[in-house]
Each structure stands twice: as C-alpha cells, then as structure tokens.
Sequence to fold (176 residues):
Amino acid sequence: MAQGEIFGWIGSDDTYQPDAVRIVVDFFQAHPDAYFVCGDLNHMNGKGELIERYHAQDLVWEELINDFCAIPTPSAFYRREVIEKIGKFNRRGNDLEYWIRVARVFKTCRVDQALANFRAHRDSQTGSPATRGRWKLEDFLISLRSGGSLFSPRSKRFYNFVGKKLVRRKPSRDKT
Fold:
C-alpha cells in the first residue's frame, strides 16, 4: 500500500531521530546508484534512557551469517527497487533473513549518524524473554540455510542458550 520511493521498518515502540528522514533522503540524492543505507542506532531502555549506541558497520558476509547482523533494522532504509527485486520481510518479520536476501543482491551502505532509537523492554517482541528463544532458534536455522557453520559464534550462542534452558529444567521423577 505504501506509495513512497524510500522504505524502512521500525517497531511500534521505536522512534526515528528528528533528522533521520532528511539524512536518508540527502544520502540517496548524493548516491543515485545506492539502494540500501543504514545508520547508527540508540539502544534505549523501557524508560527511554540511552543504554548504548550501536554503531552500524560495513557488512561482511561471513560475519552476517555466522556471528552477528551488522544492520540495525530500525536504522535501515532502502529504495522501492529492493522490495521489487527481493520481496518483503518474511511472514514473521525476521530481519536477519531479509538482510541476507538484500546482501546477496545489493551493496549495503552506511552513514555514521544515529537514525533511530530502539527500545528494549520485557513486553517488546525483541526484548521479551518469552520470545528470545524463538528468535535465537530462527536465526540459527537461517544461518545454517545460508551457509553458516555449525561451529560459528552464532551457533555456539544458540547451543549455550539451549543448554542453559535444559539445565534449568527440573528432572522428572520416574514413578516406576
């Protein structure tokens, strides 16, 4: 339904920096051959206080699939052509899967300015302990399907998460 030429994806409880749209439009006007840009991200707590600033990094394929995603989703913007070529986010909105598809086709660019504020709190999709396991599993599987290693840092973090969950379980009592 969107009619614009530049798109972004931001959570309902996140915000853009006041000058983010101007920075992105200026970037695309200065770089007509660019299709994707991301910037820094302010990580905020539930009260809106700054926890840390996440600095967007140049995308390195091996790191993207094996370790971490260097693209902060709320600070990412792309031209309409990106969606026309690779489609929309998957049904569950997994950003890692989408950025892998983007990186296979388009060069990713970045600006060294904060473009968005990401709020993490217990009730958010990303910050909720209840959904954290689902995201870790999904990212692990996406990594493997994209050529990631079973022994990568991302895989090891998933194994560690699962191992801690198993250790916390109380053993069942055998009634025989």
About this structure: Residues 6-123 form a domain with the Spore Coat Polysaccharide Biosynthesis Protein SpsA; Chain A fold (CATH 3.90.550.10).
